[in-house]
Automatic annotation (TrEMBL):
Domain of life: Bacteria
Keyword set includes Ligase: no
MF (Gene Ontology): transferase activity
Descriptive protein name: Glycosyl transferase
Amino acid sequence: MPQEVRYEPAIAVLLPCYNEELTIADVVRRFRETLPTAAIYVYDNNSRDLTALRARAAGANVIREPRQGKGNVVRRMFADIEADIYLMADGDGTYAPEDAPQLINTLLTERSDMVVGTRRGVTDDAGRTGHAFGNSVFNRLYKWLFGSEFTDIFSGYRAFTRRFVKSFPAVSGGFEIETEMSVHASQLKLPVSEIGLDYGRRPEGSSSKLSTYRDGAKILWMFAMLMKETQPLRFFGAFAVLFLASSLFLMMPVLIEFVETGLVPRMPTWVLSVGLLLLSMLAAVTGLILDSVSRGRAEQKRIFYLSMPSGRVERERASALATLETGPGKTPRAA
């Protein structure tokens, strides 16, 4: 009687790094101890210190990504690495490698496509006060714009299925990449989970690469762009309402004066109000048209997501079916 072959999922630990020589060796070592069967990849993003050397000495596979920015690194990692389960963390030691099994277990038991390790204690370090305030503001804004699936959209400690990784477009270039991941999951209504994890402090001499104001502005711009792409009717509808309100505000006194006197003495105001009314109508029509386009794009993204095998078991099963369908003089069908 044939025995069922069981496959252990292939796990890849992905660590984007920039000038983390003080912590990367310890992070790699702890991940190797926690997940002994996992492949650990450190993507060095033009570090000016010994990050790459110390990561390689600790046993990690080190790859250089010359395009500066975390989003560029994540896009390269997701394109390069083949695995069943992907675990992404930072190389600064603020996320505990010992929590990795909890993230992976949640991914498997809840059959989620992404598990986010929400950060406890993010405000304990006084140096993070500005970051923590911005994090709170942006999380509230995210809930209002895109949905309530996430409470910490900026957490860098995440576990993914292969299906999520290979269907995620990753167009961001910087720290706004986590926001894009969250919007992608919300738009396609993918199964996601969150678990609370302790957030550590950086060691003495290590500094954050996040700029409160510069990166905050980039994230805010990304919010606007993602809303335009995923919710164009709501985006352009807001401009339509604004133009309409401005038009009526300018138009009503001129109309009242015309009804009373039969004259239009403030012609420039009338022309401006009519122009704003036309802009309002144009914005509304643009939103309606692009909403249909956005729905079509979302459907295509969903179909592509569903076409991706979620792991090695599914890929082996598909290969076996193709082999069974192959007979004398036949060739396997293209996957």
